[in-house]
Amino acid sequence: MATLDRTDVRILELLQRDGRLSHVDLAERVGLSPTPCTRRVRRLEKQGIIRGYAAILDPKRVGQNVLAYVQIKLERHTDDVVERFRRMLEERPEVVSAHAMTGEMDFLLAVVVPDLDALGHLTLHQLLKLPGVRDVRSSLVLETLKTVPQLPLDAAGGRH
After folding, report:
1. What would the 3-class secondary structure string for the chain be?
2. Same domain, 134 and 63
3. What is the average pLDDT score of the chain?
4. Which site among 62, 74, 92, 136 is 20 to 30 Å from 86 CA-CA?
C-alpha cells in the first residue's frame, strides 16, 4: 500500500467528488501551485491509486431499470471452469461487478438490465448453461438507499 500524506488524501477526496476538476482548480483547493499538484496527480495515477476517470450514470435514465445481485455456485473449482467463468464475465456488459466470495456461494455478481425478461435470459441462457455452474440465485433490488463511488479516506494514509 502506498503512503499518502494529507495533501494526497485531499487530492483524492476532491477528485472522487469531481473528476473533472482542472489541475489549476485542484491545486488552488489543496493549497499548491499547479505544477506540483499535477505531479502529485500523475504519481497517484502511475501508482495505480487513481485507476481512471468516469461519468457516473443514472441507470434508470439509460434504460437499465433492474439491479439484481446474482449468487453463483460452481460444481467444481478446476482452472478450466474458473477461467471459462471469468471469460463469460468479461463478455457480459450487464455484469457491472463480480466478486469471489467465502461462504455458501462462490461468486456474487451485480447485474443491471432493462427488465426482468433480460435478467431471465441472462440467467437461463448464459449463466445456467455455462459448464461448471451448479446453482444461480438472484435477489432483485427494490430500492437503492445508498450508493457512492467514493472510498472513505483519512489523513493517516487512506486507511479507516
Report:
1. CCCCCHHHHHHHHHHHHCCCCCHHHHHHHHCCCHHHHHHHHHHHHHCCCCCCCCCCCCHHHHCCCEEEEEEEEECCCCHHHHHHHHHHHHHCCCEEEEEECCCCCCEEEEEEECCHHHHHHHHHHHHCCCCCEEEEEEEECCCCCCCCCCCCCCCCCCCC
2. yes
3. 93
4. 62
What pTM was computed for the model?
A: 0.85
State the pLDDT confidence band at 159, using cuts at 50, 70 and 90.
very low
The CA radius of gyration of the chain, in Å to the nearest whole number, is: 20
Grid cell of 135 as nine digits: 446453482
Domains: count for the chain: 2
Does residue 22 belong to any structural domain of this protein? yes
- Of the candidates 33, 45, 44, the one whose C-alpha atom is nearest the C-alpha of residue 5 is 44
